Amino acid sequence: MTRRPIEAIPAIDLIDGQCVRLMQGDYSRKTVYGAHPEETAQELEAAGFERLHVVDLDGARAGHCVNLDVLRRITTSTRLKVDFGGGVKSESDVEAILEAGARQVTIGSLAVKEPELVTGWAAHYGADRLIIGADVRDGHISIHGWQEDSATTLDELLTYYTQRGIRHFLCTDISRDGMLQGPATPLYEEIMRKYPSIHLIASGGISCTEDILTLESAGIPAVVFGKAYYEGRIDPEKILKR
Q1: From the DSSP assignment, how many helices (H) and strands (E) are in the chain?
Q2: pTM, full prediction
Q3: Which among 105, 106, 111 has a CA at the least distance from the CA of 152?
Q4: Which phi and psi angles does 135 have, rounded to 5°?
Q5: pLDDT tens across 53-84, in order?
Q6: Which residues are known to be catalytic?
Q7: pLDDT of 88-119, one tens digit each?
Q8: Any idea what the Cα angle at residue 119 is, between residues 50 and 157, rounded to 5°?
Q9: Are 204 and 223 in contact (CB under 8 A)?
């Protein structure tokens, strides 16, 4: 069976308005890759990418969106299809993110804490405007910028939202994030086996171009990567020409 080309999505994580990457979600272990995220976004667009995943790490820790001005600069200076998350706690946050030009809103902690509220937003804005962040550590979903592990399991989260018509999920294996040790391919394969209709975005551990092609061969629809790209380990032409 011929696999569809995987959707390759670079990521920009924001702290203090800068483009950074963390190791395993640890705010004390960060590397700054650029002081001007909109310029990084422009470079990604020039390389041929069409989508961008933006995470407001300041917002995730503060509990409210912080870097909307950066989002606006990215969406007004590129044609990238941007999804934005971090600190989304209210409908006004969702509206502000969409008004700032994002195509989709990624919701993490609130998807665990207030599922009925989030499904209400899906009904109002359209299920395809939301991405549910399933950030996993030891089988449970982590919240509050990965600073706390919830009692909710990955299966419980996926089952709840798929039964309510939501199909976009971003799953990060926190233990691998920023470590350049390869993705949790068996985890993503198991998710797709149980939930074949979802659009799964794999995240965490991507170390090179071959990791992305391995996920593609495994039938994973999409992948997010950051550190490996910024450190020159990913060849955009080899991925995008597919």
Answers
A1: 11, 12
A2: 0.91
A3: 111
A4: -90, 115
A5: 999 999 988 888 999 999 999 999 999 999 99
A6: 13, 135
A7: 999 999 999 999 999 999 998 899 999 999 99
A8: 80
A9: no
